[in-house]
Design a protein that fits this description.
The relative contact order is 0.10. The chain folds into three domains: 142 residues, Tyrosyl-Transfer RNA Synthetase, CATH 1.10.240.10; 206 residues, HUPs (Rossmann fold, 3-Layer(aba) Sandwich), CATH 3.40.50.620; 99 residues, Structural Genomics Hypothetical 15.5 Kd Protein In mrcA-pckA Intergenic Region, Chain A (Roll), CATH 3.10.290. It is globular. A six-stranded mixed beta sheet has the order 1-6-5-2-3-4, with helices on both faces. A five-stranded mixed beta sheet has the order 7-11-10-8-9. The protein is an alpha/beta fold. A hairpin with a 2-residue loop joins strand 8 and strand 9.
């Protein structure tokens, strides 16, 4: 039995005991197991198990998971370290949790005993990765890049042991390249290799510009792989085409092409379906204060909790499945499972000592906050809108939600609630999609006792939007 097997059994045993994960010893015991796992030596895993553990959190492993296992074994048999490349371009000052997904995978490789090299693309950032873009990217200056680089190593240090990993800048080998050398590389690559890219074709069809530097971005990026002669490269699934070019250029250089490992792009915290992005404001930055990070994660829709566990923690797939089963059976509380997620991410990024204070700050700010104390809270008279569907009230009358469809989606995700607030605190009922489409009068009839209680306040909560239901007409 491997060390990971023992850790898994300990974790599942704690979960099945039905701990209150919202606070206290139950939460602390589970977090302790996960803290040990983040440091767990995985070198006792057989090569096939190493490959499967990596593949469990990926979109692609190319050419195959079996090939990954074979190549790990070949490196060990040859007495050399298996080289893992992870690259990041300093196109912004902040790294967020979306960037951390491949970093967590790279840290697994490191704990398996393999050699991880983090490449900071101070040269490739001057071009700007064109993957998935629909138009021009404002060019970065050398000063912009230097400013963005200032805290990069510090921001990602939570995921790597830099005593055993390399942190390098690709200007080391890219800056000295001469024009004849670059021409020699380019002449071996057909133009069709880049013209086949869907994102490039769409930009040209739309009349948007595509610069020559963007056109050869993937070739420049591939020279990092050639320099390292790496065995595997990890990146988001949006990097797939770039990494396939890396394989081609390595092969042209007489090297065995790297294995491509892609990770999912996680959805942003707002639950809109858009990927996590600083520009959309639906992100959690690695520089966030622990309390802000905890609060942001506690605000995510319930449906995002399982994929966030899979992408952002060391919780195993079998453990996520067990949590879902225990939730469905009532053994675990949904708020407790979300608290575990937020606590584990904060512990990973900010350190275990930051968790308790962050959790307490969240409780003080949100859990015990009275809706009736909120200033300028929008409201509607129940009698006036009794025949109007709930979704219509939220979307079109109060204009708190972008559309009726959004109200329905929030209801499907369990985020639409009727809340009663009195002196004893708050209680709520989850509203269904059918409730969202029905007139408010149906809701009143179903919960007449609440609406008759003049000493309590009533509210509709749709995600983070809040509407007061005021008595009278």
């Amino acid at each position: 039995m491997t060390r990971l097997d023992l850790s898994r059994d300990a974790f599942l045993g704690l979960l099945r005991a039905g701990p209150d994960l919202r606070r206290g010893e139950g939460l602390d015991d589970v977090l302790s197991v996960l803290a040990e796992r983040r440091r767990l030596d995985l070198s006792d895993l057989p090569f096939a198990d190493q490959a499967r553990l990596i593949a469990s959190r990926t979109i692609d492993v190319l050419p195959s998971v079996d090939h990954l296992a074979e190549r790990i074994g070949a490196a060990a048999a040859g007495g050399r370290r298996f080289v893992v490349k992870f690259g990041i371009d300093p196109t912004g000052a902040d790294v967020h949790l979306g960037h951390a997904v491949p970093m967590i995978l790279a840290s697994r490789f490191q704990r398996m005993g393999h050699h991880v090299v983090i490449i900071v693309g101070d040269i490739t950032a001057l071009i700007g990765d064109p993957s998935g873009r629909t138009g021009d990217r404002p060019p970065l200056t050398a000063d912009d890049i230097r400013a963005n680089l200032a805290t990069y190593q510090q921001q990602i240090s939570a995921f790597f042991d830099f005593a055993g990993a390399d942190f390098r800048f690709n200007s080391e080998w890219l800056a000295p390249i001469t024009l004849p050398q670059m021409l020699g590389i380019l002449e071996q690559l057909p133009v069709s290799a880049s013209l086949q890219r869907e994102d490039f074709r769409q930009r040209m069809a739309a009349g948007a510009s595509l610069t020559m530097s963007e056109f050869i971005y993937s070739v420049v990026m591939a020279l990092d792989s050639v320099e390292l002669n790496c065995d595997v490269e990890i990146g988001g699934v949006d990097q797939l085409l770039n990494m396939q070019m890396c394989r081609r250029v390595m092969e042209n250089a007489g090297q065995e092409p790297e294995i491509v490992v892609t990770t999912p792009l996680i959805e942003g915290t707002d639950g809109s379906g858009a990927k996590m992005s600083k520009s959309k404001g639906n992100y959690v930055g690695l520089t966030f204060e622990a309390a802000d990070m905890f609060g942001k994660l506690m605000s995510i829709p319930d449906r995002l909790v399982p994929p966030y566990f899979r992408a952002l923690t060391e919780v195993l797939d079998v453990e996520v499945v067990e949590m879902e089963a225990l939730l469905a059976g009532g053994t675990l509380h949904p708020m407790g499972v979300k608290t575990l997620l937020a606590s584990e991410v904060v512990a990973t990024v900010c350190g275990p000592g930051a968790v308790t204070a962050a959790r307490d700050a969240f409780g003080a700010q949100f859990s015990r906050r009275r809706f009736s104390d909120v200033e300028n809270l929008p409201g509607v008279r129940v009698g006036k809108v009794a025949e109007v569907p709930v979704a219509e009230i939220l979307a079109n009358l109060a204009e708190l939600v972008p559309s009726r469809g959004q109200v329905r989606r929030v209801a499907q995700q369990g985020g639409l609630r009727l809340v009663r607030e009195g002196q004893a605190g708050q209680e709520s009922v989850k509203l269904t999609e059918a409730d969202a489409l029905a007139p408010l009068a149906d809701l009143v009839a179903a919960h007449q006792e609440w609406f008759d209680d003049t000493g309590s306040g009533l509210f509709l909560k749709c995600g983070r939007a809040l509407l007061e239901l005021q008595p009278g007409s």
